[in-house]
């Protein structure tokens, strides 16, 4: 009898390996990509397509007439030239950057102090403070803006009346909205009041993750409060603090509702920011191509402002990994 030999299947043990041959991908290896494909396509459709549309629109002449007639008129960089040659754009850009920096700094510092306070106070005051923060955060933006308008009202505002009762008679009938700077200060206080709760609760959650053993060891070694904060609390808190700061920059740079509802960018355009300028050009002025150009320039300004900060954020993440 002659012995029969079966040839092993390719890819199994004992099969000859041909140099340079490609292994066929298995279905199981491709399954994660197939499962992620619907979510990726949904993100591209919902986020990528509108962004591409804005960029394309910024190179078009798209006023109300072109929109109703369905005309597709290219202007190239005409919209950008019109915006960049307008001195008001640069004034509004500087104002927006300074305004964003001030309210982000105030938000982060106030939230950090409140998070540290919640960490060290007893249970009952901590719960009361947390409920107050959540209620402040839950108030709708327009409702909060209306309340602040009444607080800072020239004739009936509780702030002026309180200051007069305290002996500051010069604040009788004081107008807090007489200039763009004072108007932005009021708007900034409103935005900080609404933004602090989220940032404070996030930082407080990060503080809860710091092991108590480290604080006990620092106490045994005789470290003071400031030394304990810089050597233990700050290293654990810094990554979360950088993330919430970055998110605050993104949120506050494009804030619109409070600025517009307070005084519609007035008086005399003194409190106009880039989002308000975009609204005035687009929805109000029906110059949608120019408004799209303002949107693209806003993104570029935000990238320039956040480039260094984003690089530090990514570097800190790489160090942790």
Structural summary, described in words:
This protein is mainly alpha-helical and 321 residues long. 72% of the residues lie in helices and 0% in strands. It has 13 helices and no strands. The chain has helices at residues 27-57, 64-69, 78-84, 87-120, 123-138, 141-151, 158-165, 180-208, 212-220, 225-253, 257-263, 274-284, 288-320. The mean pLDDT is 85.
Q: Can you tell me the residue ranges where pLDDT is under 50 for at least 5 consecutive residues? A: none
Helix-strand makeup class: mainly alpha
Largest sheet: none
Strand content: under 5%
Outline type: globular
* Helix-strand pattern: HHHHHHHHHHHHH
The count of β-strands is 0
Rg over CA atoms, rounded to whole Å, is 29 Å
- Percent of residues in helices comes to over 70%
How many H/I helical runs?
13
First-to-last CA distance = 64 Å
Arithmetic mean pLDDT: 85
């Amino acid at each position: 009898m002659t012995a029969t030999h079966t040839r092993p299947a390719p890819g199994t043990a004992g099969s000859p390996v041909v140099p340079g041959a490609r292994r066929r991908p298995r279905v199981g290896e491709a399954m994660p990509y197939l499962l992620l494909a619907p979510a990726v396509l949904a993100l591209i459709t919902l986020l990528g397509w509108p962004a591409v549309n804005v960029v394309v629109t910024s190179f078009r002449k798209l006023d109300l007439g072109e929109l109703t007639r369905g005309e597709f008129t290219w202007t190239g960089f005409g919209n950008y030239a019109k915006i960049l040659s307008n001195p008001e754009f640069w004034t509004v850009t500087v104002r927006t950057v300074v305004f964003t920096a001030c309210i982000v700094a105030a938000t982060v510092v106030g939230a950090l102090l409140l998070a540290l306070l919640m960490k060290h106070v007893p249970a009952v005051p901590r719960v009361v403070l947390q409920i107050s923060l959540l209620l402040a955060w839950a108030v709708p933006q327009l409702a909060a803006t209306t309340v602040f308008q009444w607080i800072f009202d020239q004739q009936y505002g509780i702030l002026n009346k309180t200051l007069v009762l305290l002996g500051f008679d010069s604040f009788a009938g004081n107008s807090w909205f007489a200039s763009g700077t004072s108007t932005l200060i009021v708007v900034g206080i409103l935005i900080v009041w609404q933004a602090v709760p989220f940032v404070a609760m996030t930082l407080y959650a990060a503080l809860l993750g710091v092991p108590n053993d480290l604080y006990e060891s620092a106490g045994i070694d005789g470290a003071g409060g400031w030394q304990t904060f810089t050597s233990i609390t700050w290293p654990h808190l810094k990554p979360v603090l950088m993330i919430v700061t970055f998110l605050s920059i993104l949120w506050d740079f494009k804030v619109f509702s409070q600025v517009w509802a307070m005084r519609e960018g007035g008086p005399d355009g003194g409190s106009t920011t880039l989002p308000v300028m975009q609204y005035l050009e687009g929805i109000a002025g029906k110059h949608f191509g120019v408004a799209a150009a303002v949107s693209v320039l806003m993104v570029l300004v935000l990238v320039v402002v956040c480039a260094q900060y984003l690089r530090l954020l990514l570097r800190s993440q790489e160090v942790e990994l």
